[in-house]
Amino acid sequence: MAFKSLSIALLALAVARVANGAVTKRVTCATGQTTANAACCVLFPILDDIQENLFDGGECGEEVHESLRLTFHDAIGFSPTKGICPRLFSYAELLHRGGGADGSIITFDDPETGFPANNGIDDIVDAQTPFIARHNITAGDFIQFAGAVGVSNCPGAPRLQFLLGRPTATAPSPIGLVPEPFDTITSVLERFAEVGFSPAEVVALLASHTIAAADHVDPTIPGTPFDSTPEIFDTQIFIEMQLRGVLFPGDGSNPGQVESPLEGIIRLNTDATLARDDRTSCIWQSFANNQAKMQSEFRAAMAKLAVLGQNTANMVDCSDVIPVPKPVTGKAHLPAGKSMADIEQACATAPFPTLTADPGPQTSVPPVPPS
Ligand code: HEM
């Protein structure tokens, strides 16, 4: 049976296409779809399964948000200096030793899901584990694949890169590598810098919080989003984060939480501070109302994150399996009841873009429904 599928894949129609002067070979998989490399054919049945049974028919809902968070918490669990003896391994050796985006958060869910910074991540680990068990894919590949597919369900998202070929993790991540919302910006930037991310790339990665909510920052209000449009990959997170904080949406101040601009929105200290710190405020502001810039820089930063600690020379580019996201819906705006006077200008070298508010009185943002 396996031999038959392999033969079909190998005998698959190979089409030589000339596009923009470049010749690309495409194969047609046994399932009918075309892709650049026969090795990517295994992904189409997984794509169908997760769209139907993990993402509720292709929604940009809670499981997509959690799957994107998981890509980060798996990948950032990598350090050239912490948790191992640096004298035994050079950085280059470590890169080839695995770690990072290696699926260890699932393979070694005990202890990783018990780390404080991974609070709540067990939900999506439990949800993804059966999919890995019924398909021929490693946990590391599955986590990044599910993240990229999930993001494609959100209007306005870039089409993320996906490389296939992460080996099974051999050890859990050391504790203490995932940033917490009460960390200082210096420590957040140092943590990311240790694994090769600039401050600009850190801010670009935080575009992820445009399709995000918190269950555990204030456990009395689970599903409270970070911006007013958690089902759309728009720039509202960069706009609304610059509004003056005026209230706590739930039971008051919790660790890592600061005042929000609107009822129904929760704000992390790290996000609010990145939007106001001299090292990052102009980068933060540059994404407000600039969908194309946010898309391309988030895509580039995610491409790095998704292969952190992995040897890309051993991986196959299967990006063409990822669905093309729909364009963004709605226009960049201030929430109803707000005005430009509510913007806390932080960037010293350029003004915040002028935006108009939605009509009507100030409203409360509803929670992201559990599915
Ligand atoms: C300074 C770095 C970061 C900090 C401190 C941080 C912190 C948090 C916290 C506290 C939550 C709420 C968890 C809960 O209570 O349920 C959260 C949610 C989330 N984070 Fe981050 N995060 C950071 C960076 C990132 C990055 C780089 C990504 C992805 C590339 C990401 C993606 C998400 C997503 C998608 C959610 C929403 C999960 C859901 O709705 O269930 N975060 N983050």
- State the distance separating the first and last CA atoms: 37 Å
The fraction of residues assigned to DSSP E strands is 5-15%
Query: What low-confidence regions span 5 or more consecutive residues with pLDDT below 50?
Result: 1-22, 92-98
Query: What is the third-level CATH name, the topology of the largest domain?
Result: Peroxidase, domain 1
**Any idea of the CATH class of the largest domain?**
Mainly Alpha
What is the string of helix and strand elements?
HEEEHHHHHHHEHHEEHEEHHHE
* Sheet/helix structural class: mainly alpha
The distinct bound ligands, ions and cofactors come out as: protoporphyrin IX containing FE
Strand order of the largest sheet: 1-2-3
Radius of gyration: 21 Å
CATH-derived architecture of the largest domain: Orthogonal Bundle
**Helical percentage:** 25-40%
Largest sheet: 3 strands, antiparallel
Specify the number of helices.
Answer: 14
Total strands = 9
Q: How many domains in all?
A: 2
Please render the helix and strand layout as text.
Layout: H1 2-10, E1 14-19, E2 22-28, E3 34-35, H2 43-53, H3 62-75, H4 91-96, H5 104-107, H6 109-112, H7 122-134, H8 139-152, E4 163-164, H9 185-194, H10 199-205, E5 213-214, E6 224-225, H11 236-240, E7 257-258, E8 267-268, H12 269-274, H13 281-287, H14 291-305, E9 316-317
Antiparallel strand pairs: 1-2, 2-3, 4-9, 5-6, 7-8
Helix pairs in contact: 3-8, 10-14
Bound molecules: protoporphyrin IX containing FE (HEM).
Structural overview:
The chain has 371 residues and is mainly alpha-helical. The protein folds into 2 domains: 1-35, no CATH class; 36-342, Peroxidase, domain 1. It contains 14 helices and 9 strands. A 3-stranded antiparallel β-sheet has the order 1-2-3, with no helix packed on it. Strands 4-9 form a two-stranded antiparallel sheet. Helix 3 (62-75) packs across helix 8 and helix 10 (199-205) packs across helix 14 (291-305). The longest helix has 15 residues, at 291-305. The model is unreliable at 1-22 and 92-98 (pLDDT under 50). The site of protoporphyrin IX containing FE (HEM) has 24 residues, from helix 3 and strand 5. The active site is at residue 73.
